[in-house]
């Protein structure tokens, strides 16, 4: 496991509100000692303010048709962040409008109308965002793509976070004051809630899917209540991950069989207890019969029986069950096929408040996967995408990888469920077939790190998830554009004030956006081009390990299972004559993936085992192309370095330096990926690395022997 | 200290002679199992055979005018390695010829004539080399440039070697059998002697200049006798380094004052003891009053008094004293000036069998230095160059750096001692002023490593030293050409047999020679371009450390003393208005170095402290040029990698792989040098690294904190 190395925000560092006060203080002294002030300003810029940096530039008059904790926030935000006409009047109206769905809103230059006070708040954030990002503001209705837009926190009760790379949990800690709710806790949770609300995120699963049964203990639930109380005015509902064997583990029952009346009763009591503490409780997330987690199959029951039992109990309170489809066994069957094979027979057997939560790809958040065939396959069962915001397989908090392009690629993939144009987006947001509930989840990258996410640019992934959850038709370009404008505002740095808008756009906005939009493809290139997947060393999922295969480890936890490299070639044969995973896709996709001529080259080695001299569309042989891709990845990161160095005048010193340092580490890691993979695969290809490419600078043996935690220490 | 990592030849591995037998065995079986044979041949190729690989292709008839142990070797070499006309007759004649100097020789297609049997042996090696390297053989006289051509071994009695990167000593070892002379010892010493004789090297100082007094103990001297007996037939005389305080330390005297009669008597007795054991004993090498070593100044005597005392005692036996000029004190005076200032007043005071041994540059074997001003300054005292074959400051046994270009640059430097054309070569070989003895020394890079030198290409530096010691007007191109042809003969690898000569020359000889000839300039570029010097980390002299300056360490042992970088600029001001070291050079050199317009840019920061925006001849500012040089160094090593990968078909697998692996490490080290120096100096220059160059991939802080022994472990 790649241990966390950042500086923690912790409980003894200034919160966002305190930082703001600090800044005010600084401004008071600005006339006295300019140099001193600059230094102070620089040091204060740790990125904690995220994309919420606007200070009002003029006064505004706000008229609101309704008073609630939520509208109070809406009014306050408008007044604090107004960047429109001086003394303009904005009218906020809560009123039913059939064109507005759920918490959607109509907004325009004069005001906002919505069905709910939360809709009004969302409208205010949209208005303010457009002001700050200089987008046009015309009368327009904005409806959310998904009803439930949820962050999944893989936070453990001891404060650690599974696959968390930004410090410890903002919700949980161990120690004497583990259960004490401090003012500082509440301020941090409020900042968290505000950031989520500004994007339209309306739910948070507060604990790890590998859930502790202690999550359902009363003292834990009391803390959940405290968190939920802070989140509520911002429209964020609390959810919990539950361990399916909780009745046996903490209820004192002999079984956790979901059809056992005592078990059902135990869950009923527990749900009632939760609902009493948290009336708007969102529901349960369950990882069942997956990677050692207990589930209904342990008692001879199907996933449907287990999920439905919980769903029935939650229904009276409007709660849902999100049941994860991330299942695979140590069978001889292709792991990529198993979730589909296990869940498709159950289609139609789930309650309408159960949603099957499926990861975007059939394996596990790899740098690139084709979409999971469950999307577009399930027809009478609700299904929701699980995206991963935390970059478990994408350089964690070290690599700059903007994930929107990957998610858009996924959401816009055509499943052909109802003919052409049946994108994953339409198959999950209710457009293609009716779902009682629609939802989308993102595994959060949030921790106590002063900048929340470990990497300044990882904030953009939190931002992008929220924006795509609200509107699954947004482009990556638009999201990046917004995020840069909000996060690195032009007027922020003293230096850039002297430059005009077009200069700022040309020399800062466009290059940085270019870097973000290229960054995912770059990571795919230097890690796993052409459809390669899961070739990480050990279980830390950071560095390369195509060779990693300790004796006795189950095959599908070792890279050779996935790359299948030998002297004949490389790639996992999932064609009709191979594992036949292609069958799980609808025509014409099935044939398209199956046939070499039509299979997109980005998925080539996902679906095909090919000889090293296979001719690519550009005329190169496969081996050479693989080398060119790896090389391209390294070069891309080097270009990011140059680009970032040139935008220095437009960014504060602290964030500039932090990102520069991370880009350096990314460049070293890219080199290690390239060398490790080229040299390992070369043992089988027995072909030279093309002579016009840079040759490896590491020996395979030293990389094979490398404990990547050592690299990490070395890199710090 | 960069610890040795190679595989040692040791005392339990096959010697060259055994390897030869092994090869014969292999050939016998060649008809049976071809594949098996190839494998064996490949595994056997560890480089131990150096440039002596020829096996006779035809029989030859040898007629010799004299019989001696040396002529016996000459006859045997001709018969074993003959590549000329079948059944040709070669006549070897020992006969005085006034055109032949010392151990020179006249050779031609029909035979060799010389004043001594050693001259005949040298002629045989020359003839055989020309046969193997396909050079023309016409009647010609070859006379040595220096009378004494000596290797200095910095070997300690415990078997370690100071600045040795190829394993332990071939002469000394510790343990129970430290003093036992085995047959294996003798075979190895014989191989060593043969290799030296093949180049014309005729002397070896068997122990470290930081000498142990125990060197003069009787049991040590008995082992010296055993070594000298093996070396003698090959014309190699044994020399010893002595500690000046030996009379006090092991003689039981109260002083080691050179004018004390008891001291003189002690030395006289010791010299007699040595001469009795080794009648052709060569003499003493003395490091006196230098880096903590004792010397005559400890007793208020001059270097001359100390050296002359020993010289007088050695004279009856034809011995000489090589007295090192490598002296510097913790004075405020520029270290580069001190040797000159200390020795010039003594010019004329030394006996004619004393030779002042001066390192090529004024500091200490840096990647590039201007020549030491002692050359061309001393006029009535003999002076000899000390070159360093072991790459203490040039990547040790990891980096491929061919040193001939550096040595030729030095030897061809014009001192203007007697007008234009007074090269260092002419000032030291007796051409410019008469010397009773002429000599040249090279600090050996030889150890127990199976390939002798740690790096296959480090053998070329041993070779180059020997060839330049014989003929100080040889070109680097010629030396490289010879060495490649002898060390990687075209006919050696099965694969290359199928290729014709011009293919081999174009695709192997020329690229490899190109790499060798560029390699020194590349190392200067990525380590210390533009006259920078001595900016190594710690005392291991491997990695970069421009920042290295522990509190309390004497200034002239820290890099900031040498680079003098600050916000105003960089470089050591040795002009007339600075330390005035330029004064030590004769006109017009003094003015040429002193003036910015005429100072060669390769020595720019050696002689000048210049602002970061100083305009270079190519129009770039100094800071940018520095970055371009560092960048060029990294790119050059990357090009060497590509080049080496492409010559694979022409080289055996073992040497190909070893060199490839070392080039990879060199490339990583070059990157670390570039990043460390750019980032450190950037703190002062406050200028960006030019945007069209690759940006650093390391952070300065991590490099500053790096213990380079860790890198080394990491790199293995």
What structural category characterises the helix and strand content of chain A? Answer: alpha/beta
N→C terminal distance of chain A: 16 Å
Tell how many strands the DSSP assignment of chain A holds.
15
Oligomerization state of this entry? homodimer
Walk me through what this model shows.
The structure is a homodimer of 716-residue chains. By secondary structure, the first copy, chain A, is of the alpha/beta class. Helices cover 39% and strands 9% of the residues of chain A. Chain A contains 23 helices and 15 strands. Chain A has an 8-stranded parallel beta barrel with strand order 6-7-8-9-10-11-12-13. In chain A, β3 and β4 (111-114) form a beta hairpin. In chain A, α5 packs across α6, α13 packs across α14 and α16 (501-527) packs antiparallel against α20 (622-646). The longest helix of chain A has 33 residues, at 653-685. Chain A is globular and about 75 Å long. Chains A and B meet through α20, α21 and α23 of A and α20, α21 and α23 of B.
Outline the fold blueprint.
Two copies of one chain form a homodimer.
Chain A: H1 16-28, H2 34-44, E1 60-64, H3 69-81, E2 88-94, E3 105-107, E4 111-114, H4 117-132, E5 140-142, E6 148-152, H5 183-197, E7 203-205, H6 218-231, E8 237-241, H7 246-249, H8 261-277, E9 283-286, H9 303-314, E10 320-324, H10 335-343, E11 354-359, E12 382-388, H11 404-411, H12 424-428, E13 439-443, H13 459-470, H14 476-487, H15 494-497, H16 501-527, H17 559-563, E14 569-570, H18 589-594, H19 604-607, E15 610-611, H20 622-646, H21 653-685, H22 700-705, H23 708-715
Parallel strand pairs in A: 1-2, 2-4, 6-7, 6-13, 7-8, 8-9, 9-10, 10-11, 11-12, 12-13
Antiparallel strand pairs in A: 3-4, 3-5, 14-15
Helix pairs in contact in A: 1-2, 3-4, 5-6, 8-9, 13-14, 14-16, 16-20, 20-21
């Amino acid at each position: 496991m790649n241990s966390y190395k950042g500086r923690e925000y912790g409980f003894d560092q200034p919160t966002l509100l305190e930082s703001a006060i600090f800044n005010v203080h600084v401004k008071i002294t600005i006339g006295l000692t300019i140099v001193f002030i600059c230094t102070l300003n620089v040091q204060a810029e740790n990125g904690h303010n995220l994309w919420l940096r606007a200070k009002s530039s003029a006064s505004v008059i706000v008229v609101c048709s309704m008073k609630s904790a939520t509208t109070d926030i809406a009014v306050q935000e408008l007044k604090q962040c107004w960047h429109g006409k001086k003394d303009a009047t904005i009218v906020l109206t809560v009123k039913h409008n059939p064109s507005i769905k759920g918490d959607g809103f109509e907004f325009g230059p004069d005001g906002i109308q919505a069905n709910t006070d939360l809709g009004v708040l969302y409208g205010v954030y949209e208005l303010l965002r457009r002001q700050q990002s200089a987008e046009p503001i015309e009368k327009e209705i904005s409806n959310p793509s998904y009803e439930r837009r949820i962050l999944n926190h893989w936070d453990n009760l001891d404060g650690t976070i599974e696959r968390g790379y930004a410090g410890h949990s903002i919700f949980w800690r161990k120690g004497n004051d583990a259960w004490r709710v401090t003012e500082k806790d509440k301020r941090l949770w409020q900042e968290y809630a505000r950031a989520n609300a500004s994007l339209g995120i309306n739910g948070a699963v507060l604990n790890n899917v590998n859930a502790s049964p202690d999550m359902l203990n009363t003292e834990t639930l009391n803390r959940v209540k405290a968190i939920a109380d802070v989140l509520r005015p911002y429209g964020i509902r609390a959810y919990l991950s539950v361990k399916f064997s909780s009745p046996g583990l903490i209820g004192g029952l002999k079984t956790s069989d979901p059809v056992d009346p005592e078990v059902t009763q135990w869950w009923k009591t527990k749900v009632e207890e939760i609902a009493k503490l948290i009336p708007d409780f969102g529901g349960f997330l369950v990882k069942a019969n997956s990677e050692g987690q207990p589930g209904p199959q342990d008692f001879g029951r199907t996933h449907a029986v287990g999920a439905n039992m919980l769903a029935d109990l939650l229904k009276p309170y409007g709660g849902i069950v999100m049941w994860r489809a991330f299942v695979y066994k140590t069978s001889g069957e292709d792991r990529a096929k198993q979730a589909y094979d296990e869940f498709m027979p159950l289609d139609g057997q789930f309650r309408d408040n159960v949603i099957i939560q499926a990861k975007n790809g059939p394996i596990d958040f790899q740098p690139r996967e084709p979409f999971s065939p469950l999307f577009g396959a399930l027809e009478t069962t609700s299904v929701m995408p699980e995206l991963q915001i935390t970059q478990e397989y994408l350089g964690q908090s070290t690599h700059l990888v903007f994930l929107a392009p990957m998610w858009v690629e996924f959401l816009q993939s055509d499943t052909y469920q109802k003919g052409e144009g049946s994108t994953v987006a339409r198959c999950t947001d209710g457009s293609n077939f009716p779902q009682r509930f629609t939802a989308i989840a993102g595994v959060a990258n949030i921790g106590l790190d002063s900048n929340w996410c470990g990497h300044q640019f990882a904030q953009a992934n939190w931002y992008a998830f929220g924006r795509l959850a609200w509107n699954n038709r947004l482009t990556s370009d638009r999201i990046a554009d917004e995020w840069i404008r909000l996060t690195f505002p032009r007027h922020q740095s003293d230096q850039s004030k002297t430059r005009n808008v077009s200069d700022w756009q040309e020399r800062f906005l466009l290059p940085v956006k270019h870097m973000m939009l290229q960054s995912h493809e770059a990571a795919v290139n230097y890690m796993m081009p052409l459809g390669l997947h899961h070739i990480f060393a050990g279980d830390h999922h950071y560095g390369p390990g195509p060779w990693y295969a300790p004796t006795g480890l189950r095959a599908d936890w070792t890279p050779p299972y996935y790359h299948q490299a030998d002297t004949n070639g490389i790639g996992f044969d999932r064609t009709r004559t191979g594992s036949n995973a292609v069958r799980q896709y609808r025509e014409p996709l099935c044939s398209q993936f199956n046939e070499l001529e039509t299979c997109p080259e980005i998925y080539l080695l996902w679906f095909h085992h090919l000889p090293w001299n296979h001719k690519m569309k550009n005329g190169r042989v496969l081996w050479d192309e693989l080398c060119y891709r790896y090389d391209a990845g390294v070069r891309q990161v080097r270009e990011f370095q140059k680009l970032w160095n040139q935008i220095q005048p437009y960014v504060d010193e602290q964030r500039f330096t932090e990102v520069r340092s991370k880009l350096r580490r990314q460049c070293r890691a890219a080199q290690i990926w390239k060398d490790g993979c080229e040299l390992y695969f070369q043992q089988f290809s027995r072909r030279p690395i093309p002579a016009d490419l840079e040759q490896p600078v590491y020996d395979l043996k030293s990389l094979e022997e490398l404990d990547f935690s050592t690299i990490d220490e070395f890199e710090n």
